[in-house]
Amino acid sequence: MLVQEFIRKKRDGGALSAGELREFTAGVADNTVSDAQVAAFAMAVFLRGMSFAETAALTAAMRDSGSVLAWDGTVVDKHSTGGVGDCVSLALAPIVAACGVAVPMVSGRGLGHSGGTLDKLDSIPGYNTTPERNTFRRVVDAVGCAIIGQTADLAPADRRIYAVRDVTATVESAPLITASILSKKLAAGVGALAMDVKCGNGAFAATPAAADELAASINGVARELQLPAAALVTDMNQPLAPAAGNALEVEFTVRFLRGEVHAPRFATVVAALAVEMLLLAGAEATAEAAEAAAEAALAGGRAAEVFGAMVHALGGAADFMDKCTEQLPMAAVALPVFADAGGVVADIDTRALGLAVVGLGGGRRRAEDDVDYSVGLSGIAGVGDEVGGESPLATVHAADSAAADSAAATVRAAFTIADSAPQPAPVILRRCGNAMISPNPHRQKPGGNHGH
């Protein structure tokens, strides 16, 4: 296959065959396809789109570009399409594992303005986000969950395409997002998937129509590949947690799991996704029972214990849950940012806050950039909160005063202040799923090099 002709076909609106997609993906995995060609393909798909059949073929090819794990029984996972202050995975995996369901979670790094789960975990001293496959399996078996990145043999084609998309303005493509998510999950051997599709000015799907398109794409392609899935469309018109930045979000998660912070929107999304995962896995028969189990795991401290055990099993300190503030990196400068005039937060440009974190060094401008895990925003005010006086919009954590001042200007401009609070918006907007398929641990496994 001439790669340039393959790209030209999609550029001109043609449909790519499963064979063509397999050959291209194999070239991505073995580096016979260049980064420039990956970028051109990604832009062609971004502009021309893909059918469910094409996206399913690309997903399967990316899945089979490396090893495919197999587990005893049904294991379940969750994935978010990305946002600001979205550290749900860090809290959710241990909650579900504490309810007796195994969660082998393969996550990604930051994309564009959104934070990445792996970058957050990399802020924990010693934590290994890319363990050997046997270590991954051992931790899941012993602890109940493990959150890692793509190892060298799990969906290697996706790893390259993901990195190129991050720096070529091709992130917001429903087919490419779908293929990236599902190829990683299927390579990890998950038997069911709960999706959190973000919608709003801090999401890649900025409008309800775009979010619905992405949810439909994920559910449709999952159905093509016989993967039980459910998707929640959730609000991302403000940061989900009051922190944005790698170490800061880890610290928030620890405090959340220990019951030390009140974050209603965050807690609502965590609980809703826990219910979906427990139902998909068949661990609970009703939503009410699943919600009660998740609440008990959190309130009883079992979820916090699981998170601490996972951190330790993957290389972190045994006392991380008790001493996370001492162990996580801390920025040199912490600068509270105040509004020009007091009032109530009426609106937030959430994407701008995410870009402020990237500008501080908490994300990547280029694929090879290092990340400063200590920087970001904490104490972020939410819509409806009163600000002014001694109540800041947020606190900027930066490497130096100049970076802090620059980020502070961005943060201040991102908030709209009014005299009265707007009508509260729900955080769970809607649910959609492919419930026509039931989880079945005995169904035929996908093709590829199976791990045992």
Describe the structure in your own words.
With 452 residues, the chain is α/β, with parallel strands linked by helices. It folds into three domains: 3-49, Transferase, Pyrimidine Nucleoside Phosphorylase, Chain C (Transferase, Pyrimidine Nucleoside Phosphorylase, Chain A, domain 3, Up-down Bundle), CATH 1.20.970.10; 69-325 and 428-437, 3-Layer(aba) Sandwich (Pyrimidine Nucleoside Phosphorylase, Chain A, domain 2), CATH 3.40.1030.10; 329-418, Aldehyde Oxidoreductase, domain 3, CATH 3.90.1170. It is built from 17 helices and 14 strands. A four-stranded mixed beta sheet has the order 2-5-6-13, sandwiched between helices. A three-stranded antiparallel beta sheet has the order 7-11-9. The relative contact order is 0.16.
